[in-house]
Every structure is written in structure tokens, then in C-alpha cells.
Amino acid sequence: MLLKQAETRELRGAEAGSIFWRRGCPALCGAGAKRLLRTDWTGRMAHERRWIDLVNSSLAGRVTCDRFLEAYTDYRDEQLGVEAQRAMAEHLAACGACRRYDRVLSAGVDLLRSMDLEPPLPVAPGKLARLALDADLEARTALPVVFRRPMATVMALAAAVFAAIALFPGGPRSTPELDLPAVVAAEPAALFKAGPGIQRVPVRLPYEMVPTGFQTISRSLLYQYGRPVAPRAAVARP
Amino acid sequence: MAIMAQARLDLEDGGARQVRRALGDLNDSEIVQEFLNGEERAFAEVVRRYDKRLLNFVYRTVGDRERAEDLVQETFVRVYRHLHRFDQSKKFSTWIYTIAGNLAKNELRNRSRNPLVLFQTIVKNWDSDFRPLEWEDARTKPDDLYRKRFIRQKVEEAVAELPEHHRTVFVLRELQGKSYEEIAEITGCNLGTVKSRLNRARNSFARIIEPMVD
Ligand SMILES: [Zn+2]
Q1: Per the CB < 8 Å rule, is A211 touching B192?
Q2: Taking phi first (over 0 means left), then psi (-120 to 50 degrees means alpha), and beta for anything else, what does residue B14 get?
Q3: B199 contacts in A (CB within 8 Å)?
Q4: Which of A41, A111, A207 sits opposite B190 (nearest CB)?
Q5: How confident is the model at residue A63 (pLDDT cuts 50, 70, 90)?
Q6: pLDDT of B16-55, one tens digit each?
Q7: Do A111 and B47 touch (CB under 8 A)?
């Protein structure tokens, strides 16, 4: 765990979807937050359910194109509640742009499915058994990697030692116990202003750290691809 | 297992077909158990069940038919070697897809380290693209056929254009019909990641093919 105990205090109170930034060290923040999401599996599941509930309740009202796209994957895979699923279907029936998006995707997928390859004649199990025996034999007689690639092994070990020293100057820290909602790690609006001697480098954090439903990707893509489909001006803002 | 016992008795009368049929009636975990009990023919049934599915999964992931065939064969070899270590409380299909997926991932990693392979692949595809067109039906207008072929090619390219981890999730969900939970296990991601990758993959795919679809 790369976050210090004191830093996790900030995370503990964070709302799902809130922005957290570990000052001056985006890489550590990224790895730390990602780790939190991974270790906190039950929290994550709870978050997923909360998201579905949120979508269900928000779709009970009028479905806009934005909301439709945000919930589209859940809708397509029938993950929404009955009410929300129906509200989505109603929007689809009434909105040409979203209907086209749905149709384009379905048509493309159908076409792909129709292009499935036929396998060649299956390999005889006897041949598979022989290949398996060969592979077993090879695995047993192969020299360990340290003999096959001595230089690479030494260099990998050295790199690991350097990395450990760089990451944990004071030795390894123990992992704090955490019970957290999902957290987004993102770059803050502006830490420093660009100027002489200060160059602003955009930091790209792994996108999977952004909880589903808080992404704006669907929206931006519809606008992008949708010039003939959903002109920006034509989409009603909620 | 009564079915198998009967089939074996029949086999003594020369009924290999009965055994095959009896194996065909078993579910995956029963097939695995038969193989582990020493019924070698059960493996032929595993191959029969999975070779098409895995070929298409791996092909859509690596984009090269010949390599996909090799990798599927390698998948079966690994399954054969390690089936005794398979945790039978798990789903067999998830396990076999995980093996195939890892092989495909390694293939892509090696390819990116060795641009020559990529070049060879391009040349091979280039050859087949420039074969003269053969009209399947003389009455169909060449325009239509050309257009159909063009669209198919574009749709295939659209999948190939997706980033690898988006493509894998997209193929597993849309073409292989896997559940989010299975995809999460196969790819070693959590559910949220699976869903966000799928959402992005669907968006990108739709965006790329949009101009081609009427
Ligand atoms: Zn709409």
C-alpha cells in the first residue's frame, strides 16, 4: 500500500465519485487508489449496486439523451430495474439519435457474429496428448531462467532493489485497514501555473479508476461521432 | 455415471459412436471428471465444444487466423496438461477462456516487441485483400457485393482498432455472450472495470462504423 495512514483519513470520508489528489505525486496516488478499488471488493460491489439504484431512480423521471447514454450498457445488458428498463425503452422509441446509436451498434455486432470463423478439422486427441507430453518433458528439462539469461536476471534484480529503495525510503509500511467507497483519482484543475521553468504535463491516470456512471465518455463520443446523428445543439441539456 | 457405463458396454460391441453421444450429453464438469477418471475420449468432446468459440475469441483478439489456430491448439495442450490441477468448484469454461485469453495477450505483447511479425501479418492480409473479387451470385450487382465486402472489412477493422483490453471485453460480451462476472474472472478485472471498458468499447465501435451503417 502506497498511501500513508494519515492520507487515508481523507479518503475514508470521500463520497463515491469525489476527487482525490495526492499532492505532488500522481503516480503513487494512481496506484494507491487503484489498489483501494481492487482490495475493497465488497465496497466496490456496494458502489455498483448504489449506482444501479441511482440510475433506476433517476430514470424514473424523464430520460434525456445524456442519461440514456450513461445507462446504455446497463440497459443493453438488462441490468436495470423494470421501471428504468421501460423508461429507457420509451426514450429509445421517441428519440431518433439514441435509436440510431442503438441500431448502429446492434447492426455492427450482428455483422461480426455472422462472420464467425469455422475451425479447421479438430486436432486428434492423440496428437494433443503427444504435444502435451513434449511440453511436459521440455518444462522438466529446461534450465531455470537464471542460467538461461544470467545478465537479464541480474539486471531485473538490480532494478527491483532500486525501485524498492525509491518507493520505500524508510522501509516497507504496513497496510492500513480500510473500508472505503470507490474514489476517483484525477488531476486537480491547476496546481502550478505554467511559466518559465514550469512546464505543465498532462497526467493521464488509468481510466478504470473512474467509477462507472461518473464517466462522461459516452456523452462526448456521441457528440463526436454524432455530427449527423445528435448535433450538440439538438441534444436537450437536463 | 450410468450413461457412460452403458456406453462403455456398447463400446465393447464396437459402439464408439455411442460413447461420443453419451459424452455429448454430459455437462462440462462431468466431462472433466470423465477425463480425470481416465476416459481419454472425453478430451475430444472438450475440443469439439470449445474449438470454434475459442478460435473466434482468439481471432478477434489477435486479428490473425493462422496464429489464432495455433494459440487455440496451445490452449488445448495446456488444458490437457493441467486439467488435474483445475479447481472443480470453478466453471470450466471460464478457466479455458482465461488460458486462451492469456495466450492471446502474450501474443500481442510479443508482437509489439517484434515489429517484423506485424509487418508479415499486414503483408499476408494485403495479399488476400487484393485477390480478384469472385461474385457469389452473378445476378447480384457488383456494386452491392463490393459494398457488403467493404462494410464487413470496416466492421472487422473497427474491432481491431479498439485498444486490446477494450477489445477483449467487447468480444467476450458481444460475440461470446459472457456475463460481466465471467468476463471479470477471465480478464482478472473487477466488475466496475469490465463495465467501463465495455461501455467505452461499445461507444468507440459504434463511432467507427457509424458512417457505414444505413
Ligand atoms: Zn436520445
Answers
A1: yes
A2: left
A3: 72-73, 212, 215, 217-218
A4: A41
A5: confident
A6: 788 888 888 899 999 999 999 998 889 999 999 999 999 9
A7: no
For A107-143, the DSSP string reads HHHHHHHHTPPPP-SPPPHHHHHHHHHHHHHHHHHSP
Q: Give me the pLDDT at residue B57, please.
A: 97
DSSP string, A64-99: PHHHHHHTHHHHHTT-S-HHHHHHHHHHHHH-HHHH
Place of cell 445507462: A71
Distance A226 CA to ligand 1 centre (A): 11
Cell representation of residue A43:
465496497
Q: Which residues contact B101 (CB under 8 A, 6 or more apart)?
A: B57, B61, B168, B186, B187
Query: Considering only CA atoms, which of B44, B142, B61, B138 is closest in space to residue B104?
Result: B61
Q: Using CB atoms, which residue from B78, B195, B213 is nearest to A108?
A: B213
Q: Which residues pair with A195 in a beta bridge?
A: A198
Q: A70-94, pLDDT tens digit by residue?
A: 889 999 999 998 989 999 999 999 9
Q: How far is the CA of A97 from the centre of ligand 1 (A)?
A: 5
- Specify the pTM: 0.62
Cell of B206: 459504434
- In angstroms, the CA B62 to CA B167 distance is 10
How many Å lie between the alpha carbon of B201 and the closest alpha carbon of chain A?
Answer: 10
Identify the closest residue of chain B to A125 by CA–CA distance.
Answer: B44
Question: If phi over 0 gives left and psi between -120 and 50 gives alpha, with beta otherwise, what is residue B38?
Answer: left
The residue among A219, A238, A233 whose CA lies nearest residue A98 is A219
Rounded (10°) CA dihedral A157, A163, A169, A173: -90
* Helix%, strand%, coil% for chain B, nearest 5: 80, 0, 20
